[in-house]
Amino acid sequence: MEPNRVEFQKQCAFQKFCKRALYNEACNAHDEIRRRRKREVSFCDLALHEERQLYTFDKYFQDEEAEPRYQMAGKEITPKLLLEAIRTLPEEKRTAILLYYFEGMSDAEIGEIFNTPRSTIQYRRATSFELLRKYLEEHADEWNEW
Hints:
Blueprint: H1 5-39, H2 48-51, E1 70-72, E2 75-77, H3 79-87, H4 91-101, H5 107-114, H6 118-139
Antiparallel strand pairs: 1-2
C-alpha cells in the first residue's frame, strides 16, 4: 500500500510549516536575549546610589528586644506586668483564661475537661477580668521602672 501523493504533499507542507514556525520562534528568542543584554547592567557596574535603590530594610523586627507597651487610663501596661497579673489569679480562673485565649478552646470544651457547666467557665472568665483590672490599676506605676 502506497501512500497517496496528495497526502504525502500535505504532510510535507505541514512539516515545513512547523519547522518554519519553530525557526522563527528561536530567532525571536535570540533577538530578545540580545536586546536584554544591551539594557542589562551588572551589579558590580552600578554606582552606590543606584545599588541602594534595589533593596530596602525591613524595620518590623529591628526593635525586637524592646517590649511592647500599652497605655490605658494614663498607666503603662507591659507584658511582664500582665503576666504577673495572670499569675495572681486563682488556679481555676487562670486555667480558664489560658485555655480560652491561648489554646482557642470554647467554654463548653473547657467545661468538659473540668466537669463543670459552660456557664461556670464563662463566669470564671468574666470575674477574672475584674481581678486583672484591679491588679493592673494598683501595680502599673511600680513596673514602669523596668
